[in-house]
Amino acid sequence: MSSQSHDKRLMPILLLLFVGSGCAALIYEIVWFQLLELVIGSSAISMGVLLGTFMGGMCLGSLLLPRVISPEIHPLKVYGLLEAGIGIIGVLVLIGVPLAGSLYTSFVGHGLTSIFLRAGICALCLIPPTLMMGATLPAISRWVETSRDGISWLGYFYGGNIAGAVFGCLLAGFYLLRVYDMVTATFVAAGINAAVAIFALRLSSRTPARLPTTTPSTEPSQSAEPVSGTRLAYVTIALSGLAALGAEAVWTRQLSLVFGATVYAFSIILAVFLFGLGLGSAAGSYLIRVVQHPRLLLGLCQILVTGAIAWAAWTIANSLPTWPIDPQLINNPWHAFRVDIERCLWAVLPAAFLWGASFPLALASVPSGDKDPGRLVGGVYAANTVGAIIGGLAFSTLVVPSVGSQRAQQILIAISAVAAVSILMHRKAVIVAGLIVAVAVSSVVPPIPGLLVAYGRDFATWIQSPPEVRYVGEGMNSSVAVTEWPSGVRNFHVAGKIEASSAHRDMRLERMLGHLSALMHPQPKSVLIVGFGAGVTAGSFVLHPSIERIVICEIEPLIPEVVSTYFSSQNYNVLSDPRVEVVYDDARHYILTTREKFDIITSDPIHPWVKGAATLYTTEYFENVKAHLNPGGVATQWVPLYDSTEDVVQSEFATFFQTYPYGTVWNSDIREKGYDTVLIGYDGPTKIDIDAFTQRLLRPDHLVVMKSLQEVGFTTPLSILYTYAGWAPDMQPWLRTAEINTDRNLRLQYLAGLVVNFTDADRIYQNFLRYRRIPDDVFAGSAALREDLRQALLPLP
What we know:
By secondary structure, the chain is α/β, with parallel strands linked by helices. It is built from 25 helices and 14 strands. A hairpin with an 8-residue loop joins strand 10 (664-667) and strand 11.
């Protein structure tokens, strides 16, 4: 049997190995990103550093392997050892990230120093395994001839790797991390690596290790092309990668508005994008075998991409938000996921397909001659990856915040047109036609609708009678909006949902969160507010006479700088108060790294179903908050009952009470309706002296506080205590089956992400209200006031 026929028989087996390799790689990627976010934060800068390090390691691996590993070593042996190494280091990363995190938090500062330290931690954790991941395709390419047929197989391997990545993305996002945790997901990925490594090493011992040969006399070759043409092929594939990752950054932000920014939505978007890349790679690999001019096809792909980008932009803005039905009518989450997959495919698949086809066409466009196939593949892969790094970082952190998503997509169209011109330099007619197409399609790219930024997945509900959109901003970390109804009620929106408003019910909660926190401390001097919102909670603290320092931690600069001005009367112009300092950072990262302690830390984060928000509801986060409280300090946490189910709320309560076993629950609606709750944690058993509490609010220096409470319905000093809804020890029977949200499982984001269309707040509230009593361990004071409180808390007839 000839070596060539031997190769062809084994090619499908190698393809399957690459499917497994891609599956493991995506599981690792999701786990590592989740792990490192807990350490370095989830701000745009942190995520940019993380993405750049991950992809940079893969780029470096693709370049180094052909230069460091001799082609004389059996390619399958090298591939098998790389897979084994990835699995071993993958487990070590799981163990090592917490250790690296403790080192990081010991030295981290802010500003440029902090960025360098974040990059150092990412490099320490990610460079070793990603070097190996990037080296796998160049390694296996040495076992393939650089003929047209061989390069076609390399394209299939690349596509197979992406197909595995699609499966790994869905497996991790919808099953392993939802049902188990990061440890289980890591060991599943390591097991896949081990199986691939063992199979590859066994194949290497049974097959000859031969150097690649070429057959230029029997197959079309472009070896006569000038060196400048080769360089232009590298430029084209680099620009293709830049446009692809830039578009993914833009579309992920927009589609997360359409679908709801859950962890499942992000998994769907990534999986569909990868699916398109893999499908396109398979098509491009097939075309290599049947066409004579791969460079022409590569250029045509870039021209067609200009139209595909415009298609996606128009579809996401004008079609998907209301197609095919109002998503609010779908109560089954798995049905909703199917609809989201269909919508995502409709918008994203054409462009992703063309970018996927570009990679094998670029391989075929580079003259091979007697070149080491490892260098051929490594060079093209590295060029594509370098472009992808630049695109992902630039568009997520610079372009969209600077010029908006509409201009960003028009820039992407221009970049794709330049990529086409680069490879089609000598085909002037095609270039002219392509430029005409690019200019034409660029003009139809629409701006993102303000109502979509405001209401996201609920867009269809409000499109018939929308409020006035007063402001829309696309910031570095999120998109925000301010709307106003004819009644004068203003709403502040983040990630397609209302985060704060001037409506009575919301103002009641926002004021209550601030005032109740301050009143639970005998003499509060310093306070940390997690999440600025409309500034109402932060503004409540400026009224308390003992407060000397207010630190507000907010991840998105647009919110305090712009949005707060629309609510200045409600937030008492909090930003103009000299006691206030605003820190722009991920709140978890700030608390983890600051050495300052506070009398009060109050958290009003985004809803737990939003991807990443669950990190502000974990046991470890609450422990970090507790560690940053002064003796006698108070921690408060907002917990919504709407857009939730009982198991979600039980998880939030039980996790908080693990850290604060004597915590209390307060409901913002005294009419026995469920909407918002506030959890209050103390560093030990604490009694509320009802007499002292009411007398404090009647003091002259607290009259402005009392007036602020009266504006939202708390008419007497005692009435805010009427919102008492339970004590942690009494609620333990209700919480017996609750799942604890930890850093290692982030269970809450998977539980909450399944129920964004559910409205069960009243039933949830009534269920835990059955455990409410007025224990002597919580309340002290005169018999008359205790009886007044008891009567107020009796169930309504």
